[in-house]
Amino acid sequence: MKAILAGSALAALILAGPAWAFPDKPITIIVPAAAGGPSDTVARLVAQSMGDTLGQQVLVENLGGAGGSLGAGQAARAAPDGYTLLLYHVGVATFSALYPQLPYEPTSDFSSVGLITEVPMAIVGRKDLPAADIAGLIEALRGGEALSFGTAGVGAVSDLCGMLLSDALGAEMVVVPYKGTGPAMTDLMGGQIDLMCDQTTNTANQIESGEVKPYAVTTRTRIDRFPDLPTVAESGLDGFEITAWHALWAPAGTPDDIRHRLAEALRTALHDATVKERFAALGTVPVTDEAATPEALDTHFRSEVERWTRLIGSLETPAQ
Fold first, then answer.
1. Where do the TM regions start and end (predicted)?
2. Looking at the domain 27-119+243-313, which fold is it?
3. Residue 12, exposed/middle/buried by CB under 10 A (0-12, 13-18, 19+)?
4. CA 97, CA 30: separation in Å to the nearest integer?
């Protein structure tokens, strides 16, 4: 009788699929951006804690190129077994609009795991830019002043912020794409370009040192690190909001129980004291437990895809 019961239990585990033993080997998180950038920093913070929870090493692999779409494509083509994941930002929601020839579709080729954080952004200018505040900057742009705007390339969060600002103002800026925010910030501090809009992870130190002129943050409300810096919305552009939200996905077809196991480990990571401390230093906080779920990311992602597809379509600036 005991042998029969043992055999039945084993059969039940086999029928339940591979998730009962998950994970039994290291997990890889693909970050489709260079090492040392904001997405890489977020990934490495949560990977360490998730690995502790899951009892397996969680590795980070950087695969940049084509605005993040190349690395994301590799994640989309990976086996749907939970061992290859994608961590990236709002840019994933723009891939279909910016790269119409992509061999994959983000809304159907990824399965959600959960949101991680929403990093505020700040609009900054060269320190000798004449506009004294965001109201003066808006007036100058609406008045037709041809200001140059540095970005980290097509589809980067800095690029999306510029698109949103141009659309809200009905004004054109001279967009100057760089291979990353580092070179763009260097040129901004050197006075070679006029403006940037980038994550506080990349702008906070330069703001505090006085190397750039801060104009506004792009969040719905002011942020703790710069309480005196107004939001764009309160400065005359009602409803203006963009954050560099980051999220975790698995390839489409990954079993629900594996995704929920990963989401549980993610939520544990977001409560980790070291993660919260490092996030705070970056000017952000982890999302709530309710947001760090597959269901919440599904809803948020669909909404963001619709938003950016509509905006990019109206500007008619798809990537070649």
1. none
2. D-Maltodextrin-Binding Protein; domain 2 (3.40.190)
3. exposed
4. 22
Q: Which regions of the chain does DSSP assign to beta strands (E)?
A: 27-31, 58-62, 84-89, 110-119, 121-126, 148-151, 174-177, 195-199, 212-217, 244-251
- Separation of alpha carbons 195 and 174, rounded Å: 10
Strand 84-89, strand 27-31: pairing: parallel
Q: At how many degrees (to 10) do helices 294-315 and 157-169 cross?
A: 50
> Which residues of the chain fall below pLDDT 50?
1-19, 317-320
pTM of the predicted model as reported, rounded to 2 decimal places: 0.83
Helix then strand then coil, % of the chain, to nearest 5: 45, 20, 35
Q: What is the DSSP letter of 255?
A: -
pLDDT at 20: 57
Q: Taking a C-beta distance cutoff of 8 angstroms, is the pair 171, 207 a contact?
A: no
Domain locations in the chain? 27-119+243-313, 120-235
pLDDT at 142: 93
CATH code of 120-235, in short, is: 3.40.190.10
* Structure token digits, residue 226: 């710069």
| Dihedral sign from CA coordinates of 218, 222, 227, 229 | positive
Equal CATH topology for 27-119+243-313 and 120-235: yes
d(CA 215, CA 211): 13
In whole angstroms, give the CA distance from residue 121 to residue 116. 16
Contact 61, 30 (CB under 8 A): yes
- What does the pLDDT read at residue 105? 93
CA atoms of 16 and 61, how far apart (whole Å): 30
d(CA 14, CA 217): 52
Helices (H) and strands (E) in the chain, counts: 12, 10
